[in-house]
Amino acid sequence: MSLSRFDARVLKAHAEDEAQYADFAARRKKGESVAYILGEKEFWSLSFDVGPGVLVPRPDTETLVEEALKTFPDAPVRAADFGVGSGAMLLSFLSERAQARGVGIDSSQAALDYAIGNARKLGLDRRTDFVLGDWSSVDGMFDLIFSNPPYLTAAELAASDLHDEPAAALDGGADGFDAYRALAPAIAAHLNKNGFAFVEIGLGQGDAVRTIFAGSGLEIVRIAPDLSGIPRCVVAQAAKSPWKGAAETLGCSRGTGTPPESL
Questions:
Q1: Three-class SS state of 75
Q2: Within 13 Å of residue 44, how many CA atoms lie on the same side as its CB?
Q3: Residue 105's closest CA among 77, 128, 79, 135?
Q4: Beta strands in the chain (DSSP E)
Q5: CA dihedral in degrees (127, 148, 106, 192; nearest 10)?
Q6: CA dihedral (207, 60, 160, 112) positive or negative
Q7: What are residue 215's phi and psi, to 5 degrees?
Q8: Mean pLDDT split into 10-residue runs, the chain, 263 residues
Q9: Strands 40-43 and 46-49
Q10: What's the CA gap between 174 and 68, in Å, rounded?
Q11: How far apart are CA 89 and CA 116, in angstroms?
Q12: Percent helix, strand, coil in the chain (nearest 5)?
């Protein structure tokens, strides 16, 4: 692949001499990401160490952090990131909310190693725990759940230039929704009654994810756009009981009212 002017400027700015720049440029032309070459990526104005085996955080994903901060003031909330990767989302949120604690779950030890290192680097390791495993390994309940699941279709991934990043963090299956089908029941099982989940989606995936989440008793309350105006962050919570709402409207007392036959 060719070396863009932007990539050339970034690599040149980080190279110590011409020999190192030449090495950087050659690696980029072979398809290695700039973040992997430099060993770091900025996210939420913080520097995260990245490398082979972990997804490179993207600016679009900052939308999830922004929405979470809007929703949760500085209170002692318990947060989780299902598929924590480098720790970018979870640690960015914790950096802004001093009373919050977090748990990061990932099935990749390589990714967890980066997350653990980044937590230590940012001075957030005393407020974070990390668990190796899939979403079934999660234990406990959370006020806030982050997730950036893989959502590219197999065809989209094959046609992309993302082959140096871990396929498990990108490949959403034939239709792009495999991860959401597994994620929805996990969120429903571990989200507190008044909690919220912040989940990234790809272009045009909102309606399908809404249907998948509804099947697990989750209600999407809004979908926030990224800086390009693309719907990016699904904000979901446990769906309210339709009977409860109708009964309270009709004046039934909680625990003693009897729903009318028409309901």
A1: coil
A2: 21
A3: 135
A4: 40-43, 46-49, 78-82, 101-106, 128-132, 142-147, 191-200, 218-225, 231-238
A5: 60
A6: negative
A7: -65, -20
A8: 84 90 90 91 97 95 97 92 97 97 96 97 97 87 96 89 88 93 96 96 95 96 95 94 42 36 32
A9: antiparallel
A10: 30
A11: 13
A12: 40, 20, 35
User: Has this prediction a pTM greater than 0.85?
Assistant: yes
Structure tokens at 83: 């598929």
- Burial code of 189-223, b = ≥16 C-beta within 10 A, e = fewer? ebbbeebbbbbbbbeebeeebbebbeebebebeeb
DSSP secondary structure letters along 14-68: H-SSHHHHHHHHHHHHTT--HHHHHTEEEETTEEEE--TTSPPP-GGGHHHHHHH
DSSP state of 87: S
Distances (CA, A) of 17 to 31, 40, 153: 22, 19, 41
Compute the distance between CA of residue 131 and CA of residue 93 in angstroms, rounded to an integer. Answer: 18
